[in-house]
Amino acid sequence: MNATIRVGWRSSVGLTGDVLAALPVPLAFPLLVALYYDESPVPFLAAIAVSIAVGAAFRSVRDPAEDLGPREAFLAVAMIWFLVAAVGAIPFAVAGVGTVAHPVNAMFESMSGLTTTGATVLRDFSLHSRSVLMWRQVIQWLGGLGILILATAVLSEIGVGGAQLMESESQTQDVNKLTPKISRTAQLIWGIYFGLTGLAVAVYFLLGLAVDPQMGLYNAVAHAFTSVATAGFSPEPQSVGAFHPLIQWAVVPFMVIGSTSFVLIYFAINGEPMRLLKNEEFHFYLGAMGTLASVVALGLFLDPGATFGVEGTIRHAVFNVASIVTTTGYASTDYVEWAPAAKHVLFMGMFVGGMVGSTTCSIKSLRWLVALKSFKRNLFTAVHPEAVRPVRISGKPVDEGAIRDIYAYLLLSIVIFFLLTVVIVVDAERADLRVDEFEALGAAATTFLNIGPAFGDAGPYGTFATFPMTTRAVMIVLMWIGRIEIVPVLVLFTKAFWTS
Amino acid sequence: MTDRSDGLLSADLGIIARDIGSLLLMEAGLMSFSVAVALGFGEFHAALGFLIAGGVTAAIGGFANRRFADAPNPRMKHGMVIAAGGWLTVAAFGALPLFLAAWLTPPAVMDSFVPAAADAASWEPIAVGGTTTVSSLAYFRDPLHALFESMSGWTGSGLTMAIHEPSLPRAVQWWRSFIQWVGGVGVIVLTVSILSRPGSGSYALYQSEAREEKIHPSVVSTVRTVWKLVVGYTLLAFATLFAAVRASESAYAESLSVGETAWQALNHAMTGLTTGGFSVTDNSIATYNSALVEAALLPIMVLGAIAFPVHYVVLRDRRVRELVDDLQTRWLLLLFGAGIAVLSIQNVLSVPATAGAFSTGSFLPVSALSLDAAQTDAIRDSTFQWVSALSCTGFQSAPIGRWVAGAKVLVVGAMVLGGAAGSTVGGIKIVRGYTVARGIVWQFSRVFLPKNAVVTARIGDRTLDRETMEREFGEAAIVTLLWLLALAVGSLVLVNVAGPEFTYADALFEVASAQGNVGLSTGITGPSMPPLAEGMFLFNMWIGRLEIIPVLVFLRAGIWGLNP
């Protein structure tokens, strides 16, 4: 057995260095906000200094002869997501107010941001400066951008957990040369992402002028960042519930578009809208969202405790289901107070997720669609073993290897989710904290699947700070693993990755 | 390519009806035998019930069998439909004796079944025919309860509608144990003859077993060998239990007559060995409150969780090493040990927080290893319950409903996994869990290998090429995923319809118990449970026993027929 390390780790570290060295650009944004509102710029200056120093150090180890192959890409992805989150935690820790002064909480907030989760440990929003609150929004927007590039250029090329089934704009012939692919995809995606964000800022700001003075330019920018990134942080403790109903309705389409395949949006913009409209995954995604929203709306109508009126009932059902299914994590009302059945439907919605190739998290519609079609196929071949019948998505046959990848991904997700639930339950008991099992399940799903709020104390108007510190530390790791689709992290622990 | 028939009754339907008919004829035979048991105990009303039930079953089964006698031989595609339909039909007819006995026995006679020693004053009276009785037999006047009991018996689950088993007639107690015992053998036959065919989702699992460890080439001789093993083990278990109960010094055990002891030992031997879990005592095994009886049951449940081909090899070749060499048995024994340790730690730590969650009366006279009496009791209950859960038996020695959520969730894990494929356990089974785990690792490390790399994997002592390995993973993954989906949906439904006193962990536990054919209960299951939940459990037990795919094929055939 050849035990020498065959991974070109130098190029992975170098790429991580590139990303870290670029962090001062997004950090400059909250810095400007701090200067504008006359708040302390120190938290951001500290983070900028660290990112430049570490970035330079990492770049210096690069070996220009090595190119980025699948292994190197995995290693780089795992490192980038972890280290960017670590740098992102610096402003919270340096600012030193509220719960996030503690390093673990700062890391939780930053990881929750970068992974576009949206689970918060903040308790009292009024303690924090406007610039720190804006940094939470920026880091989520950044996380959304990162995942777009990862999903469209890296995971779909290497073929992780069925991601190879994604409709991509061109399939590269050689998976060992990922760098050109990444930069080309990035250019295409950036345009759409920036455009959508700008559009959201304009829509929110104009609506704010018209109906709700609370939605000023600051909030318009802050919410545009986190709705297109399907991320879910809000500088308002009441989330989007703080705004006029019209604005709540306006947020829904941006969450939905954020969870739609950006590659298909690219085609739609470039004169091929049918590729999006006839895509089966798109139908499944909208169908799941519509069905769940109808069930929740029905539940709220029947619930004597819920008094929202007709428009309010529909709005809250549509908004919160869309928020959960797209994995955004906003809330238009505190759904913790709803009847259990409605909460159970929301819980189920957590596992659906939007389309691959978007900023969405969770399992994603494509995987469920392929799995369900394959189950159906299996019932047919059970009776007719001699028949050959490929599973088809949007008319194209699906590779059997990809189907098995999806099975593996689903099973692994379920197992990790279950283990995390056990950790939360047992750790809460150890700390003598009353967390009922449903709250634990919700908290496990919402962090691992990167959604945001859960139920009980960790609800949309609550905080994750009530969980024991150990639980939060585990959640940090699982948000990280969940966001980069599990595999890039787990393969680091296999021998085959480092040697063979 | 298929035999299309334009008639109302296609050839497919004929084949299926004929084969299910012959299953019913066998069941009628079991009922006739039970008539003798009822008469032997002087329970004439119950005897009449069994007689009528047997007659009806024989008539319908005989008619179906005769009417379609000239149908062609069953083909592979019929196998799964016959298995799923057969289990359902047999369970439905198996409810008849319970239902008839309950209606034919007058309330006054029902009361006479209630043991004099029992603390019947605290039992809830049941209204029947203008009067009330405390005999649990009256519950079976509700056809849904009778069907539930029969399905729970035939699938080897052990969840029961009879709250107070001692107040049932002997014949009904016998029928419950008897169907679990026969149902257990039925599972092995199912395994060998149906599930070891392609497409069942379990094919890879059992095909491999059949190739390497097939007991005998033909189904008939396999059944004969399995019966020999089961009868032999049952007698052994009976003797052990009888001795243990006689030797036990607990107040309850000492109050039993020799005849009563033998009766209980026989019933518990039958349901323990086939990992069924029905009991004839009021609070399952907790009634004995005896560490000795629990200790005697442990090896019986473990035997039931080991694959029958392994038993055969061990006994024929006198090769005890096979227990370690066989992949499933090795893991099974490991999981028994590891699980007991983990569950014990969790429960010992939770002792201060949970009052009345464990058996009382320190079974060790002295405190050992600086554990106090309550803690050693927690370990004792953890041990028994873990073995009962992983072997999917369902004997209960402690009020699990009062355990902390962490402990419940651990036991759920055991019930979901279950014991070794090829035995009478439920759950997804060890070899499938192992294949899935190996497959996941393979599926992800595949990314780094060249497309044409030659790879082989070893599962147990079989060496698999890439294609076989991938196919086996695919089949195992489908069943596992469907199993978990059904569990998730079922538990969410249950937590909404069960009373507010039950938490989500309770609901998850109960559905895992039903679908894993285990029979442990947190207290949700009982005659007062919502009918929707009761009906759902029927489905859970049914799909759990047949490993899901055959039931789905059955339902699909019911809607679209067997032709493409």
TrEMBL record, chain A:
UniProt membrane topology term: Multi-pass membrane protein
UniProt cross-references to InterPro entries, sorted A to Z: Cat_transpt, TrkH
Localization annotation: Cell inner membrane
One annotated Gene Ontology cellular component of this protein: plasma membrane
GO terms for MF: potassium:chloride symporter activity
Listed transmembrane segments: 12-36, 42-61, 73-94, 138-160, 188-209, 246-270, 282-302, 345-370, 406-426, 476-498
Keywords on record: Cell inner membrane, Cell membrane, Ion transport, Membrane, Potassium, Potassium transport, Transmembrane, Transmembrane helix, Transport
Highest taxon listed in the record's lineage: Archaea
Family: Belongs to the TrkH potassium transport family.
Protein name: Trk system potassium uptake protein TrkH
Native organism: Halorubrum sodomense
TrEMBL record, chain B:
Keyword annotations of the record: Cell membrane, Ion transport, Membrane, Transmembrane, Transmembrane helix, Transport
GO cellular-component term (any): plasma membrane
One Pfam family here: TrkH
Gene Ontology molecular functions: monoatomic cation transmembrane transporter activity
GO BP, sorted A to Z: metal ion transport
Keyword field contains Transport: yes
Record InterPro entries: Cat_transpt
Keyword Transmembrane found: yes
Record membrane topology: Multi-pass membrane protein
Superkingdom of origin: Archaea
Locations listed in the record: Cell membrane
Positions of transmembrane segments: 20-41, 47-68, 80-104, 178-196, 226-245, 296-315, 331-349, 409-428, 476-498, 537-559
Main location: membrane
Family: Belongs to the TrkH potassium transport family.
Listed name of the protein: Trk system potassium uptake protein TrkH
Species this chain originates from: Halorubrum sodomense
